[in-house]
Design a protein that fits this description.
Number of strands of chain B: 0
Strand content of chain B: under 5%
Shape of chain B: flat
Distance between the termini of chain A: 59 Å
Helix content of chain A: over 70%
Radius of gyration of chain A: 22 Å
Order of helices and strands of chain A: HHHHHHHHEEHHHHHHHHHHHHHH
Strand order of the largest sheet of chain A: 1-2
Structural class of chain B: mainly alpha
Structural class of chain A: mainly alpha
Oligomer: heterodimer
Strand content of chain A: under 5%
Number of domains of chain B: 2
Shape of chain A: globular
Order of helices and strands of chain B: HHHHH
Largest interface: A-B, 69 and 80 residues
Number of helices of chain B: 5
């Protein structure tokens, strides 16, 4: 609390607060429009924050993120298309509820479910983080290497489909991370004789290319730039206390699922909403009403996806491991500002850490107020012409890529990474493992090489230290399980 | 009947090739003398070998899984591929133009072109497109110049 109030005070400075208002609104719009997402909004903001102080930059990115995760339910409710992957499960019940004339009720459940998920999860994150950080201080490079490896394997194994493709995506991220100067001995690797690559591949054009350029290019090529329009009539809030009390068990269960999934590396709101929805449906006495406009389905999806926000920040702040793609961007921003998240972060930068918590909480309040007051204008949000919006976004991407290094070659890099994003799409390679490995790549190598050089026992400490061994076993199991699972299933079927 | 899909073979082959290139190139990485750790060559080698193994795995994965082979949807047809080329063509021309004539001249033209291309079959007013293009160019220029102290390219010809 001693750090929380000064942090909140810093955010209430007029300039920063106005930026939070603007970015929260922009986040809601990004979340609401299919094809855009809060993550894309954060990647656009990332280069703009370089010239700012850390608190202002972070306030902008966090409010954009919170708005983006929350805003996804708007189009899910109004047109049955999720604004972001975090709201896929919201469509199942919010759209049918809207179609039977209860649009206000469906939207209100989305608004308050989002707020509940974000606000409570960030309070829990603020309480838990100091304890996790204390535990993390006792870990050495051996445990950190194994933990990072475990995180990457978990991300790869949880990607849908071919596990080898997920691993290839992670290896590609590792390759990009190795370009430039080697972490410990300073030798040049994969620079191909050009000075541009000596500093390594810049994170910003990579993120902009794979997040924004590739997405817009594919939508354009596939002719997906048109949105169905909503004719829903919205009057009042349409929510009563019963909607909340009757679904309290679903809300609490979904919240815990969202928080836990957010905490796991690489598993963000895109997965939590689906799992929470499935859990809510399977254990509900009105399970047959799910998919037909049951409020429990909307609560489950919206509470869980927003609870992942707080959950994802815990490993980023305490361990230096991003919980999902957007926290990878936030971690990039911290690194650009010369800060290294990890166990010492909370003691070395207490003000900034509590600014992060306070900003998420403040943004959640701003977003819930904006959404409650502006509920009747939601359909107008989906009427922004795609070509104007995306044309402008592309120009911001290009300017942002340039700003990252003040070098025109980074524009070319963003275009190249856009093409690489499409290539990954063609090969059905998920891009989350690549991005996370790229962010963690140099750290993994550094921990491994430090672990070897700190003792004369070679790789043995990685196996003999219990915590390190535990993470290594988890890493191996998470890779082997998707390969073994089909055989076990086949055997069970045969029996 | 399970079969190996062409796309998986291409993906696998691509990464096997990339893995081999990385392995060969990693031999050229200088190892400093008297190191107490493996040096800068180890991780590129692990990456190269990993790509070769996973590339082979990715290519033949569908053969060993017990899921029925799904019909492969065409990734992009000819028209879509041409649209993609046009899109990236505009971006490349924009990049070259920025290099030679700078941000202030190239950006409104590129923004206008992108809006006209992205509109597809919809109607987009030329005047509105032009106003938006000029406005976004000016807003970004002033935001970067005065807000973030970042000077956008002036171009080789006007430097």
């Amino acid at each position: 609390m001693s750090h929380f109030l000064p942090a909140l005070g810093a955010l209430l400075e007029p300039k920063i607060f106005v930026l939070i208002l603007i970015c929260s609104f922009a986040g809601i719009v990004f979340g609401a429009i299919p094809g855009l997402s809060g993550g894309m909004g954060v990647s656009l903001l990332l280069p703009l924050t370089f010239g700012m102080d850390t608190i202002t930059g972070f306030a902008m990115m966090l409010s954009m993120w919170v708005g983006g995760v929350s805003g996804g339910f708007i189009s899910a409710t109004l047109i049955g298309i999720p604004g972001a992957p975090s709201s896929i499960a919201t469509c199942y019940d919010a759209y049918p509820m809207s179609q039977r004339g209860e649009t206000s009720r469906a939207l209100s459940i989305g608004i308050f479910g989002s707020f509940f998920g974000t606000a409570v999860s960030i309070i829990i994150a603020a309480i838990v983080c100091p304890y996790v950080a204390k535990l993390a201080i006792s870990l050495g490079p051996w445990e950190y290497f194994s933990l990072c490896l475990c995180a990457l394997m978990l991300v790869s194994s949880l990607s849908r489909g071919n596990i080898f493709k997920a691993l290839l995506s992670a290896l590609l991220g590792m390759f990009f991370a190795m370009i430039g100067t080697s972490v410990m001995d300073g030798v040049f690797r994969f620079t191909f004789g050009t000075t541009y690559l000596k500093a390594g591949v810049d994170m910003v054009p990579m993120m902009l290319g794979t997040f924004a350029v590739a997405q817009i290019a594919m939508d354009y090529a596939k002719g997906r730039q048109e949105l169905p329009q909503s004719n829903a009539k919205i009057k009042g809030v349409g929510l009563n206390l019963k909607d909340f009390t009757q679904n309290i068990v679903v809300i609490i269960k979904s919240f815990l699922i969202g928080l836990w999934i957010g905490f796991l590396p690489g598993m963000g709101s895109g997965i939590s909403n689906m799992i929470a929805y499935g859990q809510a449906k399977s254990g509900h006495k009105e399970a047959d009403q799910f998919g037909k406009g049951h409020p429990g389905g909307i609560w489950a999806s919206e509470v869980s996806n927003n609870a992942s926000v707080g959950g994802a920040l815990i490993p980023m702040i305490t361990l230096g491991i991003p919980g999902d793609g957007t926290t990878a961007l936030l971690m990039t921003a911290l690194m650009v500002h010369g800060l290294q998240p990890g166990p010492m972060f909370i003691t070395s930068q207490p003000k900034l850490v509590y600014v992060i918590f306070a900003c998420v909480l403040l943004s959640a309040i701003v977003v819930v107020l904006m959404q409650t007051l502006g509920i009747r204008w939601f359909p107008a949000m989906l009427k922004i012409p795609y070509h104007y919006l995306f044309g402008v976004i592309l120009i911001i991407c290009i300017a942002g890529a340039f700003a990252s290094q003040n070098n025109i070659i980074t524009i070319f890099a963003a275009i190249v990474f856009g093409a690489i994003g499409i290539l990954l799409n063609y090969f059905d390679l998920p891009n989350a493992p690549m991005i996370l490995t790229f962010v963690l790549g140099s750290k993994i190598e550094e921990y491994f090489r430090k672990g070897i050089s700190y003792t004369d026992k070679g790789i043995m400490p990685f196996i003999t230290r219990p915590v390190s061994l535990l993470f290594l076993v988890l890493a191996v199991l998470s890779v082997l399980w998707p390969m073994v699972k089909p055989y076990i299933k086949k055997k069970q079927k045969a029996e | 009947m399970k079969k190996i899909t062409t796309k998986d073979l291409i993906a696998g082959g691509f990464f096997v090739l990339l893995g081999i290139i990385i392995l060969i190139y990693s031999q050229q990485i200088v190892l400093k003398p008297n190191l107490t750790e493996p040096g800068g060559r180890l991780f590129p080698q692990i990456t190269g070998i990993g790509m070769i193994i996973c590339g082979i795995g990715a290519a033949f994965y569908s053969r060993f899984t017990f899921k029925p082979t799904e019909d492969q949807e065409l990734f992009l047809n000819k028209q879509e591929f041409l649209k993609l080329l046009l899109f990236f063509g505009i971006l490349i021309v924009y990049y070259i133009a920025m290099r030679y004539v700078g941000y202030l001249i190239s950006t409104p033209i590129a923004c206008f072109a992108l809006i006209q291309v992205l509109k597809g079959k919809k109607k987009a007013s030329i005047i509105v497109s032009a106003i938006i293009s000029l406005a976004i160019t000016a807003i970004l220029y002033y935001a970067f110049y005065y807000g973030f102290y970042i000077y956008l390219p002036t171009g080789i010809l006007f430097a």
